[in-house]
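Support case: 4'-deoxy-4'-aminopyridoxal-5'-phosphate complex. Customer-provided input:
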Amino acid sequence: MKPLGKIASEISPSATLAVDNLAKSMTAQGIDVAGFGAGEPDFNTPDNIKLAAIEAVINNETHYTPAAGTMRLRTAVCRRLKEDIGADYEPSQIIISSGAKHCLYLAMSALLDPGDEVLLPGPYWVSYYEQIRMCHGVPVVVGSTQEEGWRVSPEKLEAAITDKTKCLILNNPCNPTGMMYTRPELEKIADICVRHDLYVISDEIYSCLVYGDAEFCSMVSLGEEIKKRTLLVNGVSKAYAMTGWRIGYIAANAEVAKVISRYMSHSIGNASNIAQAAAAEALEGPQDSVAAMKSMFAARREYILKRIAAIEGLNCHEPEGAFYVFINVTGVLGKKCGGKVLATSADFCEELLKKGLVAVVSGESFGAPGYVRWSYAASMEKIKKGLDRLEEFLATLE
Ligand code: PMP
Ligand code: GLU
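Agent response - structure generated as follows:
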């Protein structure tokens, strides 16, 4: 048989989903694994949202919708963007798709020609890298360090621009580090993008999950010039505990939105009508559940940071947002676990899972060896158990 497509054959599976699946399959075999792999809220979807979906079914909202999404949901997105970040959008500028992940893929499909370069600040969320390649683009990783607070330096970013650079992908707050840019930092980045005529795909999926004194600033709130070249991506998965409903959105200039809506019309057609009704209720209805979940994430963050700080050999940057801690494990690399040397963070994660029964994702998958990502989107009880096991595991290393 002829070989499969070259690009498709080279795409690696999502490491975050792989770790999560592994932990779930171990649990199904009766093994008591504490899984912190996938960043997925452990809360159930709030009742008002679930009831809206049931009503949608009863009211026969079970047919196709416009490719870009229902007018009700696109209008609800516009209202929320106005209320949350003060940005003005028309429903014609909004595209609804099946999850923010697919929205990112649509955004890259709309922007990229073969060989176009995409600036990707590192550490980066696993799917960006492969999606750029799936859209025939070339990822150009611009790394940052823990000492830099995981912030990409504007100078390094500018130095990586060539005549092939088409866009920048910015994830703020960031998965996996939890870092969040301040307004002045974002202004510098926006200025570079405007001067070099670059598009920005601004993934703001964690915009609601910001802690302490940190204040979220959206890329599109920095003026008309940057707004018109930004494809803002957000969704309901994280803020409303709706990961399984698969609803995300893109807000963009009308021309970009039109192109993306054509892609939608020929690819998935439209996102689930029922899930769109649920998402509309999420965005239009009472917002108190968002605040309640956020305060629980905040308490877990406090707890995990305190415990990590007390463990010899480990440390992390204090995350301002999202629900991850990105732990530096270089202090324990080189030690032995049952005779096997833990040479890399991937070895560390493998042994921690096998011997410690704790699942976390190794930094290699995010372009940052030496680190592990621990999601605290899990109950406090589970987090405590996981950290106890981590300490026990570390105590066995020689
Ligand atoms: N962007 C980032 C940074 C994420 O962590 C996630 C979570 N999977 C997504 C996008 C996609 O979210 P979803 O497809 O569930 O809306
Ligand atoms: N965003 C989550 C994560 O990074 C969910 C899993 C995924 O879609 O990759 O773990």
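The chain is about 40% helix and 15% strand.

Case will auto-close in a few days if no follow-up is received.
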